[in-house]
Description:
This protein has 263 residues and is of the alpha/beta class. The chain starts with 8 loop residues before the first strand and ends in a 9-residue tail after the last helix. The chain is built from eleven helices and nine strands. The model has no long low-confidence stretch (mean pLDDT 92). Helix content is 49%, strand content 15%.
Amino acid sequence: MTDMPNDSVQYYKKRAIAHILLNRPDRYNSVNHDLTVGFIQGLHNAKWDDEIKAVVISGEGPGFSAGADLKGIVSQTAAEIEDYIVMYYATIVKKIIHMDKPVIAAIHGAVSGVSLAFALACDLRIMDEKTVLRYPFINIALGPDGGAGWLLQRLVGYSRAFEIITSGEKYSASYCYQIGLCNKVVPEGEALSSAMTWAENLAEKAPMAMAITKRDLRHASISTLEENTIFEAREQKAALESQDFSEGVSAFMDKRKPIFTGK
């Protein structure tokens, strides 16, 4: 385990996998300042460690995360909360989205509030069969924040997102899978192990190609077909010039498993 700013987030390095563990189980991993700071540090560690090829995010205890810790919120002014969302919550989301390495959310129990922004920013999501998703903002006269609405709309469309957010109700893992909010539903208690196995498989892929794929898909969501075709071509040029591409072709011709180095 790597030293962290506090105990609210733990960071484990398992071979080529970084495991970021939200660790406030007594508060259902609700997001306070300590957790926010630790989360940012964990993402920073994973980004700049060349040995890390994939990242898994999970929660300790009964669930992934209940969202923002209301005890901290009620002690702040509206203006302070506004600034905090932009400075901290948005930073976590952007760090996940712009991470060159694949990020998998292993979700069990409940995931709600701003924690939905963190989970939906990940490239992949695995839920165990007992998971429930909830946008609770409307129930306390709030709108979504931290990017939770933006990300949901891009995954399921405007009308479905509006329905989910304004209902304030719980949605099952099977429903989330049905509408594309998670990639897999696994038996209770197996979300983390399944995510780690998937991360290990992804870690064997060419790192540059993995990063390019993330950038291509993210760019596609904000560009026209013509713009994205040019972007993909530029990225492909870098891949074609890499040692990993030569290794991939050689391994294919030799009928052996490639050994990618990220160069």
